[in-house]
Write a structure and sequence with these properties.
This protein is of the alpha+beta class and 240 residues long. Helices cover 25% and strands 36% of the residues. The longest helix is centred in the last third of the chain and has 26 residues. The protein starts with 31 loop residues before the first strand and ends with a strand. The N terminus is likely disordered. This is SIMPL domain-containing protein. One of its GO terms (biological process) is DNA damage response.
Length: 240
């Protein structure tokens, strides 16, 4: 590479270098290289969250609320055998409203509806089929969602950050070597913040409606997919 006199080195690549133009370079961007890196970790889930719905419609609101609360109490007593109430069982407040059905081209009042939701985290996936079977014996109105996740998601994401940084550093060194320059100290470091627990969860997309009837029998079986935890790191290095 030809020796430069008073001008400074500047590398601009359209794909992974986060600088939009090489035409006019500000002094802040001189002698710098910006690269991004990606870190991925694939792992099987070790817990599942079930959203359990309980809804009843009765001619009198007090009866709808009473039936809903009685069913919720039964479900909580069952869930306590599979987890800890404070950490694993979360219940919403009871909501009650008028209920209508579309009959004969018009909305007809059919009674008062009370509903309540329970979120439960099961940490032993081997008990999943057994638990769902027990839930089907109660008068729940349905299981709204089933979400698999990992109990150490935050730690896994931090590890993915390190892998992403190593990837960015490796890219920076390769680019600098190709340009016959050397990278210096790290000037900027940030992750994109996009990888949250919500984005790594596997949701079945299945909503089971039981219409307040206890079915009993064997619970359902679901094979969870491998979870992928992903981070993107943005770096900026000095060019010597």
């Amino acid at each position: 590479m030809k020796k430069q006199s008073t001008s400074m080195f500047f590398i601009c690549l359209s794909s992974i270098i986060l600088i939009s133009s090489c035409g006019s370079v500000s002094k802040e961007s001189e002698n710098r290289i910006r690269v991004s890196g990606e870190g991925k970790i694939r792992i099987m889930p070790d817990q599942v969250t079930l959203t359990i719905n309980t809804t009843f419609t009765k001619p009198r609101m007090v009866d709808a609320v009473r039936e809903t609360q009685a069913t919720v109490d039964t479900v909580i007593a069952l869930l306590q055998k599979y987890g800890h109430q404070k950490e694993d069982i979360k219940t919403s407040s009871v909501s009650a409203n008028k209920d209508y059905q579309y009959i004969g081209n018009t909305n007809k009042f059919i009674g008062y509806q009370a509903q309540q939701t329970i979120d439960f985290v099961l940490h032993d996936l081997s008990k999943f089929t057994e638990l769902t079977g027990k839930l089907l014996e109660t008068k729940i109105s349905g299981i709204g969602s089933i979400s698999f996740d990992h109990s150490k998601a935050d730690s896994i994401l931090r590890e993915a950050d390190l892998i992403a940084y190593d990837d960015a550093l490796k890219s920076a060194k390769k680019l600098a070597s190709r340009a016959d320059v050397k990278i210096g100290k790290l000037l900027f470091l940030s992750n994109d913040g996009s990888a949250s627990n919500e984005s790594t969860q596997y949701r079945t997309g299945m909503a089971l409606e039981t219409f307040n009837k206890g079915y009993g029998g064997e619970g359902f079986k679901i094979a969870p997919e491998v979870l992928e935890f992903k981070r993107t790191i943005f770096t900026e290095f000095e060019i010597k």
